[in-house]
Amino acid sequence: MVSGLSGIEKVSVHGGHSGQFCHHASDSLENVIRAYIEAGFSWVGITEHMAPMSDASRYPDESEGDLGADFLLDRFRTYFSECRILQQKYSNKLEIFTAFETETYEGSTDFVNQLVGELKPDYLVGSVHHVEGHCIDYDEGHFQKAVAAAGSMESLYQAYFDAQYGMLMDLEPSVVGHFDLIRKFDTNYLQTLGKPGVWERVERNLDFISENNLILDLNLRGFDKAVEQYPSMPVLEAALELDIAVVPGDDSHGVKSVGRNFDKGIEMLQELGASTDWPKPALINYT
């Protein structure tokens, strides 16, 4: 099942959010999976956002929708049950991994480990969406509050990459999600990334990813949300120099975004001379 650009295997290491289990996505999980099959994917990681640890750690849209942490945890458990059923139902058409995307904030590591112990995901996508309690990718207003709290854009970037490093050390997730998401609302992100106090943290985190053979998510959703994919070109080039495996993730949030920008991402990787022989994420060993 290889219907991507020039016969390259179509995969998504970070995909499959659905409106059934994510407040800012659309469509049922089964319809999203059917869309992957119709698009000719070989394997896909369904990587729903983990439930919040408490009401205080909810996404803004969850708070605005009055969705409590207890409700969201019950829904997250239902996601695992549903995804396992679909994993078996469509096993002859698509290899499905039942995984989840982590959050990073005070106390989240213990909660992630609790969820892993209870739900036994196939693997984790390690992500950072909050810095010092502020959501940094929801909208411009929340981002600017994070900048103000950090004291400067450079300080916010530093805190983001420090939080990411802590998450990497604590969890060693098989996949690192949208590595430089912090730049989403920064129009001068290339300049900010290049500041010594920021770039040295980027290099430190990439070294950890390389040394531990983690996969870097080539997050194709970035083409829709920013001027380029995540990670940005300077980070991507540095990762490839370290022989880090870079694997596409469409980060789909419904049927319409399944496989979006896949060929665009592949063309870019080919121009960089990167491998398109995709490794699968290391599965969590429960024995």
Can you characterise this structure?
This protein is an alpha/beta fold and 287 residues long. The protein has a single domain, classed as Metal-dependent hydrolases (TIM Barrel). The chain is built from eleven helices and nine strands. The strands form two sheets. Strands 1-2-3-4-7-8-9 form a seven-stranded parallel beta sheet. A two-stranded antiparallel sheet has the order 5-6. α1 links the parallel β1 and β2. α5 packs across α6 (153-171) and α6 (153-171) packs parallel to α8. The protein is globular, with a radius of gyration of 18 Å. The mean pLDDT is 95.
Features:
two-stranded antiparallel ribbon, seven-stranded parallel β-sheet, TIM Barrel, about 45% helix, about 290 residues, 9 strands, globular, single chain
Under the CATH scheme, the architecture is: Alpha-Beta Barrel
Largest beta sheet: strand ordering: 1-2-3-4-7-8-9
Helix and strand composition category: alpha/beta
CATH-derived topology = TIM Barrel
Could you say how many structural domains there are in total? 1
Approximate shape: globular
Using only C-alpha atoms, the radius of gyration works out to: 18 Å
DSSP strand count: 9
CATH class: Alpha Beta
* Percentage of residues in helical conformation: 40-55%
Largest sheet: 7 strands, parallel
Ranges where pLDDT stays below 50 over 5 or more residues in a row are none
> Distance between the terminal alpha carbons, to the nearest Å?
32 Å
